[in-house]
Design brief:
By secondary structure, the protein is mostly helical. The chain has helices at about 5-35, 55-70, 80-100, 105-120, 140-160, 165-185, 190-210, 220-240, 250-260, 260-275, 290-295, 300-320, 325-360, 365-375; strands at about 40, 50, 125-130, 135. The protein has a domain at about 5-250. It has 14 helices and four strands. A two-stranded antiparallel sheet has the order 1-2. Strands 3-4 form a two-stranded antiparallel ribbon. A hairpin with a 2-residue loop joins β3 and β4. α3 (about 80-100) packs antiparallel against α8, α6 (about 165-185) packs parallel to α8 and α6 runs parallel beside α12 (about 300-320). The chain is globular.
Length: about 375
């Protein structure tokens, strides 16, 4: 790789991934239509027309080509293992988008991808930053915790991919936050990873949200890829703050939780609701926060803007409160998220009560006939 400045490296990585994804999406849409590879509208779907689901192919192409060209593998050998994990996620997601695979098979593939990063690349959590009085943790605990983090974040993004622009917009926000911090902290390869991911997502976002003729969904291919990449960035952010350095962030795990509040909290909330209702934890439903906003009459773009603002506000709050203890900050963020996420539910209940009262007060057919008879006699 030529000797270039970190800023130029980042710019080239972002431009390359954006260009590759942007130029490939029209061809992917055309092939998907010819082969009838659509996401069919259904009871759980938030859309009403057939839409191609292979947007993850463009995200994969943009990210892989960009990193291959502009990431310095000699400076960060772990990047080749990340690419290997991304390839595994690509094929798992592609098969699920086209043929549908069993949840356990999908989970097994995710575990393999996570283990490659944790065991082979040593891309793992090694410290709890004083959480519950614990700092350094044993290797076995580090492996288990790190794999769990990869699975939770990856599936969190997979679960919020329910309306236009939400998963990609949230991932763009996270990439912007972590990418900026990596650049300021002097971690150019991680900053390059963040902007390469962001460039591909930005191209996808344009077609997913603003295009009618070439509208496309990222599918499981895209959500799994961005999930594993953002998981790696999150662990890098947490690990980089185990030692004092420029722009050191106290309580880094809690700050990372705030940055990822939407996918993490929504997943936690949905799993809790399913458990309380006696449903399977992985059984699809319409209990996500974005479903509540749609039920209030919001369009996809309005609901996405509301939820991205929600996530952005929590990220800013987390950084501003980074001097707090980890447990205290996580509890504060969870409490605030619970309160705010309940607002759409309260508004829906209020609307239902108002509609019920209106139906009770409206005259029925018998009352109308009686009034008509009285008027005729009069």
């Amino acid at each position: 790789m030529p000797n270039i400045s970190p800023e130029l490296q980042m710019a080239l990585a972002a431009a390359t991934s954006f260009a590759v994804a942007y130029l490939s999406i029209p061809s992917i849409v055309r092939v998907a239509r010819l082969k009838h590879l659509f996401d069919e509208p259904g009871e759980r779907a938030a859309h009403s027309s057939k839409v191609p689901t292979l947007g993850g192919m463009a995200i994969f192409a943009g990210l892989a080509i960009s990193l291959s060209l502009w990431s310095d593998m000699a400076a960060m050998p772990q990047m080749k293992f990340l690419l290997a994990s991304v390839v595994i996620m690509f094929f798992i997601g592609l098969k699920d988008d086209i043929l549908v695979i069993a949840p356990l098979t999908k989970m097994a593939g995710q575990i393999v991808a996570a283990l490659i990063l944790v065991v082979l690349a040593d891309w793992r959590i090694t410290s709890l930053h004083g959480f519950l009085g614990v700092t350094a943790i044993p290797y076995w605990a580090s492996v288990c915790l790190s794999v769990f983090v990869y699975l939770v974040i990856t599936n969190g993004f997979n679960l919020i991919d329910g309306i236009d622009g939400l998963a990609s917009g949230t991932a763009l926000l996270v990439c912007a936050i972590f990418g900026t911090w990596f650049h300021l902290a002097g971690l150019p390869e991680l900053a390059t990873l963040a902007v390469a991911m962001a460039g591909a997502l930005l191209a996808f976002f344009r077609f997913n949200v603003f295009s009618k003729e070439r509208k496309i969904f990222m599918g499981d291919t895209g959500s799994l890829i961005l999930g594993i990449v953002i998981s790696a960035m999150t662990i890098s952010f947490v690990e980089a703050n185990t030692r004092y350095a420029p722009y050191f962030v106290h309580a880094a795990p809690a700050v990372a939780f705030g940055v990822l509040i939407l996918p993490l909290f929504d997943t936690l909330r949905v799993m809790f609701v399913r458990f309380m209702l006696g449903k399977g934890l992985f059984q699809p439903d319409k209990n996500h926060i974005h479903h509540s906003l749609l039920a209030l009459g919001m369009s996809h773009i309005k609901a996405t803007v509301v939820l991205l603002s929600f996530n952005m506000g929590f990220a800013a709050l987390a950084f501003s409160l980074s001097d707090l203890e980890i447990l205290r900050m996580v509890l504060l963020l969870l409490l605030l998220a619970m309160v705010l996420s309940h607002v759409p539910v309260l508004l829906l209940e209020r609307r239902c009560r108002a509609q019920a009262a209106q139906r009770r007060s409206a005259p029925g057919p018998a009352e109308d006939a009686l009034e008509g008879g009285r008027a005729a006699r009069g």
